[in-house]
Amino acid sequence: MKATHLLVPVALLAVSVPAQAAPAVTLAYDAPAGCPSESEFVAAVTARGADFDAARATPVAQVMVVSISRAQDGFAGAFQVRDAREATNKREVRGASCREVADALAVVTAIALQGGAGEGGEAPAAPAPQPPPPAAADSQSTPAAAPAAAPPPSPSVRLRAHTQWRPPTSVTVPAGTVRFDMGGTIGVYAGATVGLIPSLVVPQYDFSVVAAPFVTTPDGAQRIHGIILKLDGGIWGPATYKAGDTKDTRTDLWGVYVDWNVCLSPTYDTEGLVVLFCFGGGGGALTMDTSADGMGTAEQIVGFARADLSGVLQYYLGAGFHVGAQLRGGAEVGQIAAERADGSSVFSTSPTGSVEVLLGVGFHSLWQK
Questions:
Q1: Contact 265/212 with Cβ under 8 angstroms?
Q2: Helix, strand or coil for residue 10?
């Protein structure tokens, strides 16, 4: 028998036994309504030179998981490669719109496909979105370029965040510039204090400064890092306390104080509402001149320490200005007493509790570090 007669059945056998297909790399895509569909996302990946259907030698079947969800400041996306044995670390991106996030994830997916994600390697970190390669000459349409990375905010940027009751130990952010700002307010207030002097409403004038440290990440997310500080200083009085059955004793008084406070904020918006809950302490002093019929005048200066809790509301009006209100409760540590010239007591309190109600105006400011 000739050799050619043997080659024919061998060739037919080889054709009849199909080659073993390489394990596939598939896509699992999830996004809310209004975002690019799965087919649109696959098209965006293909426009960047990658193809899910292209043959590749992968040891096991793998799934590229792409998910997009709504976030407080826009949209958040994640990319991960999984197989039956393990999964890579998630790569996360954020953006103001869902399409921005989808375009950035399409870049990550394309790089993973081109770089052999099917070999079990970890997916690369999300790069800044880049324009797709030029289309072939016979292409019927030219794909739109991916959006450029957001530029750093300008000095007039709006800062919005809240105090994190349990701050994270680390935060993953995309490549880019991290910006640090100090948002602050300065205000003047007027109101009254009750309880500082028995049965007397004392006028009060307050000057307040608040400083809140902000960080803005390259994806535009903003956070308050560190603590919010509040400094208050002001004047009590002038006021007059009258004593005696015939009110023949008169004590004219006024005072000064200063307080340092640490604050937490459930909402801090430099172009909206600012809410602060503060606690701290400081000190004060009162000057009292007591006169009584036939006894002359006694002059006294009394100093004391104080601790206080306060709540602050500020609302932005535009052009940097805001209106505000403060409610503060204080505890004065030390004796506050007035005496006549002969040494007899007019009033004496120790310790003293006071409540202050203040209304005012001020302006927001922004300092870049």
A1: yes
A2: helix
Lowest mean pLDDT among 169-178, 274-283, 345-354: 169-178
pLDDT tens digit sequence for 217-262: 887 888 898 899 999 999 999 999 998 766 789 999 999 999 999 9
The model's pLDDT over 91-122, given as tens digits with 9 standing for 90+, comes to 899 998 999 999 999 999 888 888 754 443 34
Place of tokens 């994190």: 164
Q: Which residues contact 39 (CB under 8 A, 6 or more apart)?
A: none
CA distances from 341 to 88, 171, 210, 217, 239 (A): 83, 66, 43, 66, 20
Would residue 108 be called left, alpha or beta, if left means φ above 0 and alpha means ψ between -120 and 50 degrees?
A: alpha
Q: Of residues 72 and 124, which shows the higher confidence score?
A: 72
Sign of CA dihedral 29, 34, 40, 44: negative
- What is the Cα–Cα distance from 115 to 123, expressed in whole angstroms? 9
DSSP 193-222: EEEEETTEEEEEEEEEEEEEEEEE-TTS-E
Q: How confident is the model at residue 362 (pLDDT cuts 50, 70, 90)?
A: very high
Task: Identify the residue with better confidence: 17 or 213.
Answer: 213
Total Cβ atoms within 10 A of residue 171: 11
**Tokens 């004065």, residue located:** 332
Q: What token pair was written down for 160?
A: 């919005």
